[in-house]
Every structure is written in C-alpha cells, then in structure tokens.
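Holo model, adenosine-5'-triphosphate. Inputs:
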Amino acid sequence: MAQQVIAVGTPQTFRVTLARALEVEPEDIGWVTSVTAAEEMLVEADEPAHVLVLSPEVKEPDALGLAEFVGRAAPMTAIVLVRDKSWNGLLPAAMRAGIRDVVDLTQGSEELRDAVERAIIWAENLRSLRGAMAAKPAHRGMVISVFSSKGGTGKTFLTTNLAVAIARQTGQDTAVVDLDVDMGDVYSYFGLEPFHQIDELIRLGEGADREQVYEAGTKVDDHLWAFGAVPDPAVQPPPGEAVGKYLRALRNNFAYVVVDASADYTDLALACFDLSDAICLVTGLDIVGVKHLSKALDTLLTIGLPRERFRIVLNRADSKVGLDAADVERVMKIQVDAMVPSSRLVPMSLNKGRPVVIEEPGSEVAQSIIRLAQRFTGAAEGPRGEEGPVPVPEKKKRGWFRRR
Ligand SMILES: Nc1ncnc2c1ncn2[C@@H]1O[C@H](COP(=O)(O)OP(=O)(O)OP(=O)(O)O)[C@@H](O)[C@H]1O
Ligand SMILES: [Mg+2]
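Output:
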C-alpha cells in the first residue's frame, strides 16, 4: 500500500522523529528530501499521500509554494508544517496558503501526533466525498542536468553542446536552461547575451501557456530554445520550490530540457536534481577535480538522490596529466560514462559563438558529445557505439543566432 504520511525535508532523521511521534515504524512513513521532490511525487502518484509533514528545515517560501501547488494539483493531500522555533508571525499566511496545521516541535511530540492524525482524518473524509484526482500532464519531457562543484570544468560547454546534439538527433523541441544565476554563460556559447530577468523566467512556473513559454526562450538552433537571465550576483536567488515549478513548466513543453546547474549546492540546484532524469557530473582529469567529483557524488547520494541517475563525464580526458579514466574509476569505484577530449576547437567555438557540435560535427570532441547525447535519446549508434563519426544533420549557416 502506498504510504499515507510522507516526511518532507532534511535531515533524514526527521522521518524517525515523526515515526516516533506517531508510534509507528520509520518504514511506515515515506520520505523525500525537498518540496520539489514532494511535488514530483504527487504529480507521479496514482493515489497521492494523505499528509505531507514538512521538517523544520523546509524554508517558509518553499512551504507556502508547496501548499499552493498542492491546492491545485493534489487538493486531497493535507500539509502539516513543523517548526523548531516560533513561527515568525506567518501563521495567517500559512493558513491562507492551505497549510492545515503548524506544529511547534519544542512543545513535545504529542502536538505533532494530534496534528497529523487530524490531517489524516481530514484527507480520508475528503477522499470519500471526491473520487477523481487532478489529471497528470499528458506530455513530460526528459530533464538532464549538468553539474560540477568545481568551477571551470566545462559544465557550460557540455550543457550547450549536449543540447544541440539532442535537438539535432531527435528533431524534437529542446530547451537549454541556464540556472547559474550569478554568472551564467549559456548564451555566450551561442554568441548572445541574455536579456530577461530571472523573475520573469521563474514566473513561467505559475501556469504559463505554451506560447508564453516559447516566447520567454531565445531560438538558438532548429528545435532548440535557450532560457537564461541577465547574471546578477546581487539579486536574491529564487526559492527552490519556485525553480522546480519553472523547470516543470519547461518539461511540459519540451521533449528534452538540458540544464546548466549552478556550481554550488544551492536550493536551485537541488530542486533541479530532484526533477532530473539524469545528472551529468563533470570533472577534469586532475586530482582536485576528481576529489570534488567524488565528494559531490557522496553528498548527492546522502541527500537521497538515486545512484542510477548519475552519469560521470570526464572532460579534457586525453590531457597528459598523469591520471586516466581507469584511475578515476578505481579511486571513485564508479564507471565513467563519457570522455570528452581536450581540443582547441572548444575555445575557438566559444569565441565564435558557435557550438562545436554545429561548427565541427566530425571532430573527435563533437563526436564524444554526440555519443553521450545518443545515450539519452536512444538514437542509433555506430558499430559498438564507438567507431566512426556519427553524422549530425547539416544545417544552413545563418539565421538562428539573432536575438528575438
Ligand atoms: N574539452 C575542452 N577542450 C578545451 N577547452 C575546454 C574544454 N572544455 C572546456 N574548455 C574551456 O574551459 C573553459 C571553461 O569552460 P566552461 O565555461 O564550460 O566551464 P564551466 O564549468 O561552465 O565554468 P564556470 O564554473 O565558470 O561556469 C572555457 O574557456 C572552455 O573553452
Ligand atoms: Mg559555466
């Protein structure tokens, strides 16, 4: 039977605290790491949970955003918010958003048990009155994110070229998204400058229709739209929950969404990972880079992301620096999924504002990315998947790189 009560938010011990309060085993309670993961679960479930219990670590804007989402997408699910300090006078806002109860954990676990039991009864009553749930979206694209906890490893280079390769291989509409809100440079790889503000893009998550979504993007190749904002280190980054909604809006309109995630474990990045079907971790072949990658993988597994979601990409993998893929595989006890060679074509293509996969599709560096793209798109591979250049359909030379 699906779990009726779900603990939402870190640490994982919150689930144990909740189980104790309810006098059940921890396994009787579900657990997801973040509000974005909770929203994802509600969207995917045939029968959504009765109650979501939000840990004290869930931030207030995320809690309110989740409540608003639940009101629309899973109105028979109740939310109970747990705080470990006083609730900053925001109780009316919580109630308006549809949160059923706010529990102060410092008052002991009895209050928590009573609140959750009340919420379960409420949800059961509602279910007996109403039958059908909100329909699931008919269409849902694949989200692929690219992450590295170390700067300058080739994250943006890989994101942009992977997106071009996927759009060309499949002929399906693809979005390439810059979530590096401080210093994003996805647009630079297409010879452009972003012109939207981050808030304008995030607002797409609040029910934008298809036309509004496409209008907010910049067409950078056939079947490929870029989404990015003017980098502004001074601006407050949007809450993770809002970023989750934004990415879901893109996912509902594009067959593939390839995301340049920020270089830190920000709320933005974590929301993005919760929605990602695949997460490419990129490193260069130096000992510091490999250590960073290993730590990043450990951290992301610890917060509950499944191992099979990760792909390991070695960039500049032919550099003669005394480390090779076998060393990385041995040290990290993981399999390397793709190796991208070092090439002068990469900085040259950046300076020209033309991705290498478009400009030099037959080159070794472009081919390595095209093969990685094939693993996501399922496009036919050459013999053994490694031999011979993979053709990329030729495109006319101009016309796509103009600002809208
Ligand atoms: N395979 C490669 N061969 C040669 N140069 C490369 C390769 N990959 C990346 N570079 C160069 O390294 C630099 C950094 O690449 P990129 O901008 O993609 O890194 P990033 O991880 O996005 O960095 P940031 O942390 O600043 O976002 C660029 O100048 C790029 O041209
Ligand atoms: Mg970058």
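Residues 5-129 form a domain with the Rossmann fold fold (CATH 3.40.50.2300). Residues 155-156, 180, 185 surround magnesium ion (ligand 2) (CB under 6 Å).
Archived with the compound record.
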